[in-house]
């Protein structure tokens, strides 16, 4: 099927594996009050898209649906009562990135609330801008809003080579924090090196936790955790007194010894991207603009796939080969 004119979208008609992603024709929807229509060029691929597609991890969206929450493109149309909600200066035809779309972004068009589209940072390609929302807004929320990070805090990122991990590393550079991180492969460790991470460890290697503790016996003030079901108990051993661990991801149950939190008065805090208010999202966007201007913020793209190959993007994502961000090309063929 040829997605000519961009009038196709990926749909999920039943829960299942990547094969349930189906390319279907799409008519451009009309924006309602307080909404904008965005002609998408690129869309970000995220683990939550796979959970929703498979009906797992507590996600059971109504069927059928179009996956994807983030993307980048151009404003195509503006609905009534948008002028006071759009970012200052935005007009039809302007390049924007989408920070949540209820209609899905694996598509040629999407509808978004006026308060959830932001101008693409100066000089940034649309393909990179498509990966800003989920990763950078999540990492910022974990570090700043939930983690209350201080400039003197030492931060440990348990899983630094994926999208959120990369974003967190870059935010630490912008905020001035020393950061240590892990990856699960030699390629991931090289990516950490390229991002300026001096202290990097392979979390697939036996005994890596002891190696970290030997190099940093004082512990860490803040840990960002991508696989709490595997690592949470180890995180408590790595925290400094009064430290906090932010749970960003988990794929199952875990067990821990509660007394470990008592002696050092440790905090375990959950992080959910949708906890951000519109004002909070605007604040993060302002920080993204500053971070791009200072060259601290630049999304790392692992691979760009045609929209028609979304199933392959999901397969590779679920093989846990995280080396940055996977992006779909939604432009006309």
TrEMBL record:
Domain Enoyl reductase (ER) per the UniProt entry, residue ranges: 16-328
Keywords tagged on the record: NADP, Oxidoreductase
Taxonomic superkingdom: Bacteria
Enzyme kind, highest EC tier: oxidoreductase
UniProt EC number: 1.6.5.5
GO molecular function, one term: NADPH binding
SUPFAM superfamilies, alphabetized: GroES-like, NAD(P)-binding Rossmann-fold domains
GO-annotated cellular components: cytosol
InterPro entries: ADH-like_C (IPR013149), ADH-like_N (IPR013154), ER (IPR020843), GroES-like_sf (IPR011032), NAD(P)-bd_dom_sf (IPR036291), Zinc-ADH_QOR/CCCR (IPR051603)
Protein name from the UniProt record: Quinone oxidoreductase
Species this chain originates from: Salinispira pacifica
